[in-house]
Amino acid sequence: MTSTVPNAVQHTDAAAPPITMFGPDFPYAYDDFLAHPAGLGQIPATEHGQEVAVIGGGLSGIIAAYELMKMGLRPVVYEADRIGGRLRTVGFDGCEPSLTAEMGAMRFPPSSTALQHYIDLVGLETRAFPNPLSPATPSTVVDLKGESHYAETIDDLPQVYRDVADAWNACLEEGADFSDMNRALRERDVPRIREIWAELVERLDNQTFYGFLCDSDAFKSFRHREIFGQVGFGTGGWDTDFPNSILEILRVVYTEADDHHRGIVGGSQQLPLRLWDREPRKIVHWPLGTSLASLHGGEPRGAVTRLTRTAGNRITVTDATGDIRTFRAAVFTGQSWLLLSKIDCDDALFPIDHWTAMERTHYMESSKLFVPVDRPFWLDKDELTGRDTMSMTLTDRMTRGTYLLDDGPDRPAVICLSYTWCDDSLKWLPLSPKERMEVMLKSLGEIYPNVDIRSHVIGNPVTVSWENEPYFMGAFKANLPGHYRYQRRLFTHFMQDRLPADKRGLFLAGDDISWTAGWAEGAVQTALNAVWGVMHQFGGASDPTNPGPGDLFDEIAPVELPED
User: What is the reported pTM?
Assistant: First the structure.
């Protein structure tokens, strides 16, 4: 078992192909597209060297810029804060540089196959992430209503937890054709994927996650629903997601996005930073040795403060220094609410229904706090019980999720004292880092009364509340019931032949534009969509042997629900 409450249908067929996060809304094989020797496409030689604005230096922006550079275009990257976006790895003052904390993305499923392409490309290593009851986690403590249970496998927990697991499996099977869809995704059976998903989208778009549970006979017990919300499946409790659309949750479980997670050794921010510095071996127009860093003199341009359309259907960008540049094409990868608040935008940038979709986007809050410790003391055995001194902890107390991260028994280590979402995250917002740490240590002290965590702390805590970050205003998008149509507009925006001529040239990308927001794979996929769109804008094309996402769009386009 890899989770406290596992997904339905544990696959054991070694010959079965691996799952990939390429569906169900848009079952395009991005991993095959990236791996094909013909590359992503080419543009006419007359367009080589043309500048393209890329606004946002997170993973999506850096991948878009990297691939556009390889095609012979000149990306101009604008970044208000730091390269990496929500791939943010920080250190601890006064501690050795190898001791780091992942403030944003920290765990990645094997089904993120397009993301894995770039992880492999830049030579990064991954290792199993210590989620609840995963093989990488020596032990887990589940603490609810003041009662704690120690477990090394799910079989060590009381029967009620296995009952909840069975209820979730039954709920998925009966209400969402789980086995059939998972099999179709694994076999990349596009017609079957589309057949199943079309029916579910039409039936469930207006349903909350909690309503979906309540409609199942398997979850008729409130106690079971409560435990499921507090403990959840895969990475922990999911009650903060209860108000969201059940379609968001189905995307996660169908594609096994919450299973078998791995972390990037040395920190996830290395990925965009290494792509920024990387000199591609295959590149058009630019001499070998060219990198994004070299095209920018080492640093991206600063924050964008104004975006307008100007004559000739150009995109004009003003940055924080007052510099003004005009482009035939631009890619916007930042959090979409920035277009409503921090950037002065021309209404003519997008059709009105796209503005509506951005305004209606719902974002989840999220907070974390990490402390450095002298060693992984939690691996010490209690003399009386023989159990680990401390465990990965799921609780209904303020901390909710506590993760223990080590790099060997004799090296300094890191504790994520608390990882919370939504209302649980907002509870931390008024508190300073040290105030947060004190509340967390008090909560954990009630679970582990004989463990002096404080005596092992060797540096100041680091924390983040993504809802308070000025260039993010939230951790990630999560659609509410009825938002499917809005998400479709944003995701399909790269298909600009369908837009009026005076609304083309500015392409949306980023994980909140994707169907799998909150996962780095969505950032990668929408970046590749935007790359295809820009290539098409400049008169380029994919190789016939490797059609891009736009070439196959009509065959695999997301389900379109009626507007009336």
Answer: 0.95
